[in-house]
């Protein structure tokens, strides 16, 4: 009789321990399970796995057909999976595209994935009242410290929607309202054509594009106001350019879009008064508009 009681006791105890272990396990498992982000993550991975033959990509925010995302093909390719090459397609040697960095990001898919909740930072400002992320600024300064491509100590950082916006913002900021003649905006040939296009597009009484900086070399010490774009490395020729004009009435905008170690050797950290950088070239995310400018101001463009 005693043996039967003992056996029942051991059976009950073991069952209770097993049941508790099972319940604990399922509670712990549920704790680690995704809830609201799960279907978004499943959708994101499903669209990323659509094959576009290496010549295109499908996006959740892209084209859909019959409720399903479809391939958006790179130039010269077509067809439902971008496998059809259009013979006679002309190569566009006039512009670039950062798609060459796509394989890098795919190789770092888990590290670079970002989950954004629908209620992410809806306020105009951060809790310290500023409208610029201190954490982002810290990372940018750290990045420059690691790559040793710019001095950021004691500098302000301004953000814009791509450096294109900040290039013209800098021209506006550096030209004077009350000047008798518009500031002469120049760049040495060959220069990035957007400098001229934007300066003319935003037609202003305060500034005017005046072509090649070298043409004004002998007049730059006069009281005429000049704004020179200095691009280093230069687009289109990759040269590490320096300012052509000097003088008390010359202001220089240093465009350092490509001043990163994977594009050029970095002889010394850039240290201009107005420096413009952009995420478009360092990471290749040209479609996500963010840039920055540093001054004794720094323009940062992202
Ligand atoms: C020299 C230079 N500056 C600025 C830009 C514009 O960059 P973002 O994409 O930040 O507007 C480019 C883009 O090609 C460039 O070549």
Automatic annotation (TrEMBL):
Which residue range or ranges hold the Alliinase EGF-like domain? 35-89
The prosthetic group or cofactor this protein requires is: pyridoxal 5'-phosphate
One example GO MF annotation: transaminase activity
Q: Does the keyword Lipid biosynthesis apply?
A: no
Transmembrane regions listed in the UniProt entry = none
Q: Does the entry feature the keyword Disulfide bond, yes or no?
A: no
Instruction: Describe the location of the Alliinase C-terminal domain by residue ranges.
Output: 91-292
Do you know which InterPro entries this protein is assigned to?
Answer: Alliinase_C (IPR006948), Alliinase_N_sf (IPR037029), EGF_alliinase (IPR006947), Ethylene_sulfur-biosynth (IPR050478), PyrdxlP-dep_Trfase (IPR015424), PyrdxlP-dep_Trfase_major (IPR015421)
**GO BP, one example?**
amino acid metabolic process
Q: Which UniProt keywords apply?
A: Pyridoxal phosphate
Q: Which domain of life is it from?
A: Eukaryota
Give the residue range of the signal peptide: none
What PANTHER family does this protein map onto? BIFUNCTIONAL ASPARTATE AMINOTRANSFERASE AND GLUTAMATE/ASPARTATE-PREPHENATE AMINOTRANSFERASE-RELATED, TRYPTOPHAN AMINOTRANSFERASE-RELATED PROTEIN 3
What is this protein called in UniProt? Alliinase
């Amino acid at each position: 009789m005693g043996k039967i009681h003992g056996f029942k006791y051991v059976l009950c105890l073991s069952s209770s321990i097993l049941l508790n272990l099972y319940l604990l396990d399922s509670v712990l498992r549920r704790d680690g399970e995704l809830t609201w982000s799960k279907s978004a993550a499943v959708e994101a991975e499903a669209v990323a796995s659509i094959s576009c033959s290496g010549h295109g990509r499908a996006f959740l925010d892209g084209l859909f057909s019959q409720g399903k995302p479809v391939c958006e093909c790179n130039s010269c390719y077509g067809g439902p999976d971008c496998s059809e090459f259009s013979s006679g397609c002309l190569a566009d040697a006039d512009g670039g595209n950062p798609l060459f960095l796509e394989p890098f990001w795919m190789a770092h898919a888990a590290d670079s994935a970002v989950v954004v909740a629908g209620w992410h930072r809806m306020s105009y400002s951060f809790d310290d009242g500023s409208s610029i992320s201190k954490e982002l600024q810290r990372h940018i300064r750290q990045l420059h410290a690691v790559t040793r491509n710019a001095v950021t100590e004691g500098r302000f950082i301004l953000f814009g929607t791509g450096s294109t916006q900040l290039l013209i913002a800098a021209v506006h900021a550096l030209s004077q309202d009350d000047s008798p003649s518009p500031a002469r905006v120049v760049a040495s040939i060959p220069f990035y054509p957007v400098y001229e296009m934007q300066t003319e597009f935003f037609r202003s009484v305060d500034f005017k594009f005046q072509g090649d900086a070298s043409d004004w070399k002998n007049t730059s010490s006069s009281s005429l106001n000049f704004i020179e774009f200095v691009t280093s490395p230069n687009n289109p020729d990759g040269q590490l350019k320096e300012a052509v004009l000097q003088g008390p009435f010359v202001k220089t905008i240093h465009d350092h879009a490509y001043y990163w170690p994977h594009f050029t050797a970095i002889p010394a950290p850039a240290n201009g008064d107005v420096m413009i950088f952009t995420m478009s070239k360092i990471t290749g995310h040209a479609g996500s508009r963010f840039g920055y400018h540093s001054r004794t101001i720094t323009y940062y463009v992202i």
